[in-house]
Specification:
By secondary structure, this protein is mainly alpha-helical. It is 74% helix and 4% strand. It is built from 5 helices and 2 strands. The chain has a two-stranded antiparallel sheet. Strand 1 (45-47) and strand 2 (50-51) form a beta hairpin. The chain starts with a helix and ends in an 8-residue tail after the last helix.
């Protein structure tokens, strides 16, 4: 049963990440739908001893950051993001102190801390950019 859940969650994750790249609003909703299944596989390593939860929590912010730069004016690009300077300072602080953890302890621990913080920024941006209007949920 665990193996079936793993295959289903990997499939949903690939679909959600693909949608996030092509149709970001659908991708956000697909990530929300896939999250419970992904969380059910938290103890199963997928690639190089990384778990699916770690992979998706690294790939989602990276995709969102690329979309921040590439999205056109109708999708509220990064330049129109509310509180962007506060978020940028906070992100730089998180990256700086996460790099201290990477060098002082283990690189995976520092990467985990950094990606958790960057996930906060990505989630804030995703919701205000792709789910800002009542019509977006229809």
């Amino acid at each position: 049963m665990q193996e079936a859940i793993l295959y289903l969650s990997v499939t949903l994750t690939v679909v959600a990440l693909g949608l996030l790249m092509v149709k970001p609003r659908w991708g956000v909703m697909a990530i929300i739908v896939a999250k419970p299944l992904v969380d059910a596989t938290w103890d199963q390593a997928i690639i190089l001893d990384f778990h699916l939860t770690e992979l998706i929590s690294s790939l989602v912010p990276l995709i969102i950051f690329v979309r921040m730069i590439l999205d056109d004016g109708s999708r509220r690009p990064f330049k129109d993001m509310p509180l962007k300077w506060i978020w940028l300072l906070w992100s730089l602080d998180a990256v700086l102190f996460s790099s201290f953890i990477m060098f002082d302890q283990e690189w995976r621990a520092g990467l985990s801390v950094m990606m958790r913080h960057l996930n906060g920024l990505a989630a804030f941006y995703m919701m205000q950019a792709y789910c800002r209007d009542e019509r977006d949920f229809r």
